[in-house]
Amino acid sequence: MKLYKTQHGPVAEHKGDFYSLDGDWDELVNRDNLELHLHTLIKNAPHYKAGANEPFLSSGSILAPIGRQEVWAAGVTYLKSRDARMEESQESGAASLYDMVYEAERPELFFKATAARVAGPGQAVYIRRDSTWNVPEPELTLFINSNGNIQGYTCGNDMSSRSIEGENALYLPQAKIYERSAALGPCLYVTSAPIAPETVIHMVIKRDGITAFEDSISVSRIKRSFTELAGFLYRECDFPYGCYLMTGTCLVPSSDFTLLPGDLVEITIGGIGTLINTIAYHPKHQ
Predict the structure, then answer these.
(1) Quick one: which of 55, 91, 259, 265 has the most CB atoms within 10 Å?
(2) What is the pLDDT of residue 52?
């Protein structure tokens, strides 16, 4: 089942029908057995056939599926990501750090964004003016409730400044955390079973209508399990409304590519849908 956050409230999509749900987003999603709860709610909720031009499905009405949750991220969870981080850090001498993290028992986890800094479907994500090398990072993103249980999934874009991170590993917060440095959507995909390992993440970057980068990867290529990542995150942190955790990327454009304002990034994950965002500079900092 897909759960959308819209300007008109939560909307559930199930077998071609859309159900308008009542209630607060955070209270709705932050529970165990979320899929079973949604099935219970839609039995009595007003529903609309797919294709119906309802206001909550119109362009611009679908928001990022986040309320008061924080967004965290995991790094160096795929071999290709490790290699890319080692490449960008050769001059700083920190390349071995990423190899050590990839092989270590403890994963790399870092804070990514508050809800206010998260872009939704169709909105702009930002690149830094003080960076010479900016890339998107498409990531399967977990929704974990306050009890530490994975209840759903969404598409995530972990925007990154590779030039800043490569200059010094201690600059990771500046490379990763800034206004509109993350995007989530288009929905929260809620299932009763863990997402299939053969699920494919696909990313396309378009510039002036022409494909500048395109690649795909199966989530089965990840080194660490999702429950392992969630377990480390919840060891010493409480998340009263639940939390989103980006699980790392394996789709890395080559070192001669950097994002430019006006580029279009499309991230598609099987079962979830497609998250589309444009690239821009922060308008207040021109």
Answers:
(1) 259
(2) 55
- At 10, list the tokens: 């939560």
- Helices 79-88, 95-103: axis angle to 10 degrees equals 160
- In the prediction, which pLDDT does 99 show? 67
* pLDDT higher than 50, residue 196: yes
Handedness of CA 256, 101, 181, 67 (dihedral sign): positive
Report the candidate in 161, 71, 86 with the shortest Cα–Cα distance to residue 117: 71
User: Beta 182-189 vs 118-119: how paired, if at all?
Assistant: parallel
Report the pLDDT averaged over residues 217-230: 93
In this structure, the answer to whether residues 228 and 166 fall within a common structural domain is yes
Q: Specify the pLDDT at position 48.
A: 74
One domain, residues 37 and 93: no
CA distance 119 to 35: 25
